[in-house]
Amino acid sequence: MNMYGDELEFAVNAVRRAASLYKGRSVPGVEKTNGMGIYDLVTDLDTEAERLLRNAIEERYPEDRFVGEETSSAEETGGRTWIVDPIDGTVNFVRGIPMYGTQLALAIDGEPVMSVIYLPEFDEMYTATAEDGARLNGKPLKMKPCDGGLHGSIVAMCDFSRRDHRYREVQYDIIGSMYDKVARMKMFGAACCDFAFLASGRVDVHFRYMNHIWDFLPGMFVCRCAGAYIHPELLKKNFLLITSDEAVAQEFCSSVLKNIEV
Q1: 19, 102 in Cβ contact below 8 A?
Q2: How far is residue 87 CA from its own chain's centroid?
Q3: Residue 159 pLDDT > 90, yes or no?
Q4: CA-based radius of gyration for the chain
């Protein structure tokens, strides 16, 4: 029996309803920035989708907390807390790039116990609980070691930070030192795709700075349930290195990060 099966079923249905608000819609005419410039957009559909999810959660689980990208000023996760990103990859969405989606997680005292990522343009629903593991459209996901080690790996990098120049400098240095040590580097512009593609074996490594909890927690839990390795020392320094196997993570650190202070 899945301890959080009811919450998972509810979350899948709620996320599909939220995605139905924006999938296939023309780009909203009214856009605004969240204070970080033209590259951090918030559309009316972001807030509309978050409102739908928040109302559904409050109606079904009235005692639970809610943390959402568009409406929450704090990221407190004590007790039972739902963490929501209504449209992750809004810039992609606005530009007609199909790499975006809705993601959420349920955390208890800060620890995720269930998460969902939905990529509507691919009709891919990623789900995760500790009991059932990670699944893609209901089929189990189990990550496999990368053939060829780091040199044979495809690495997904998060977008450059626009909030902290120190993170940008680390990202810039990593990309510069990594070009001849890996097979390919990708920057999808949406955390939901970074984590979903890692869990499903399309990429082998994901490296990012730990920004807001709604950006990384849902996907990190999906990948963890699929068998991903998370580098513990980098996590303490507010960076996430998550891979298909530990050997690749150690090789990444020793060959790519050896001259970079993080």
Answers
A1: yes
A2: 11
A3: no
A4: 18
